[in-house]
Amino acid sequence: MATRKSFPFGTHGMSPGDVPLSDAVKESAQQIWLAGLGAFSKAQAEGGKVFEALVKEGVTMQRKTQTVAEEKITEATQRMTSAASEMGSRAAGQWDKLETIFEDRVAKALGRLGIPTARDLQALHDRIDALTQELAKARKAPAARPAKAAGKTAGKPAHPTPAKKATPRARKPAAK
């Protein structure tokens, strides 16, 4: 004997115990099909309006999302710029320290080898310049002194010549 089951959608006037299972499935499938057609018809009729409403909501959401994203990008850019600047400052400070240490060590090594430093060479150049100026002054000074001496002893030779001894003059015979 076939088992009969009741179906929740109803059987058009039949009692649940009178409908065979295959007929109940067919009837339920028919009702589901008709419900789907009705939903489709309603979606077609109102679908354009719903679609336009969804597009409007989508545009609004996109604008909000874009605004928030731009704010976040600006904030992140500012943070990255600040961090990069800070890192650059730190790196520059470290390079300066490293450069100073290197220069000190090179200077010590050159000093041990007896090689003069840039300061030593500059001091030597300055001393040479000073000596050159003094030498130039000293060369000009002796040439100026004889000219002054010649002015004081006008008419006299610069180097006195020995005076000639007076020779006796021949006397003229006296008139008689």
Task: Identify the notable features of this structure and list them briefly.
mainly alpha, 176 residues, rod-shaped, 0% strand, 2 helices
Structural class of the secondary structure composition?
Answer: mainly alpha
Number of helices: 2
- Report the end-to-end length measured between terminal Cα atoms: 218 Å
SSE order, as H and E? HH
Task: Tell me the Rg in angstroms.
Answer: 63 Å
- Give the number of DSSP strands: 0
Main pleated sheet: none
Low-confidence stretches: 1-5
Strand content: under 5%
What characteristic shape results from the CA principal axes?
A: rod-shaped
Task: Estimate the helix proportion, in percent.
Answer: over 70%
Rounded mean pLDDT is: 77
Description of the molecule:
The protein is an all-alpha fold and 176 residues long. It has a domain at 21-142. It has helices at 21-113, 118-152.
Short précis:
It contains two helices and no strands. Residues 1-5 have low confidence and may be disordered.
Topology:
Layout: H1 21-113, H2 118-152
